[in-house]
Amino acid sequence: MELIAELANGFMELFKAGADTFAGWVMGIIPLIVVLMTAVSAVIKLIGEERVQRLAQKATTNIITRYTILPILSVLFLGNPMCYSFGRFVEEKHKPAFYDATVSFLHPVTGLFPHANGGELFVYMGIAAGVTALGFPLGSLAVRYFLVGIIVIFIRGFVTEKIYASMKAREQ
After folding, report:
1. Cα dist. 53→49, 123, 149 in Å?
2. pTM (2 decimals)?
3. What distance in Å separates the CA atoms of residue 95 and residue 79, rounded to the nearest whole number?
């Protein structure tokens, strides 16, 4: 009987810990994300949606900007999952590679721009807690994460484009 009571208490403590974590997010990270989303939306409105679209179309003209600038802009301005809608500016043959580059950038962006992908923020915050516990600053981690992310998305976009072109050539 005592074992059952201990299991029930342990079960409730698990949910209490979850509730404490959730309350921390409601008081901390959620307002930050809302403010960042509002700021990004305001910037888009100030610049003009048409100008943002023209910039996105120009970014598709060469392989470097197609798999670096365009995914970065789409993730920063639209966040996940709306960022994939920038794929409309990309030629059909480049869409799989654009998607691969964009989806690959959704994690590295969270350290500097947490509004871009709230779902990945939980992973980043776990890593950040470990880094903070070791006494290292988070700023340099976020910047390194971001820069390595840019390199990775270019490589993934380039490789995926070549694989897709090869597979398309075999179809014909």
Report:
1. 6, 31, 23
2. 0.70
3. 18
State the residue range of the domain holding 74: 48-171
Residue 39, domain member (yes or no): no
Q: How far apart are CA 27 and CA 41, in angstroms?
A: 22
Structural domain contains residue 130: yes
Per-residue confidence band for 124, with pLDDT thresholds at 50, 70 and 90: confident
Residue 79 inside a domain? The answer is: yes
**What is the rounded distance in angstroms from the CA atom of residue 44 to the CA atom of residue 78?**
9
- CB count in 10 Å sphere of residue 124: 20
Percent composition of the chain: helix, strand, coil (DSSP 3-state, to 5) = 85, 0, 15
Q: Is residue 8 a part of any domain in this protein?
A: no
The domain tally of the chain equals 1
* pLDDT tens digit sequence for 47-92: 887 887 788 778 888 999 999 999 998 898 888 888 888 888 888 9
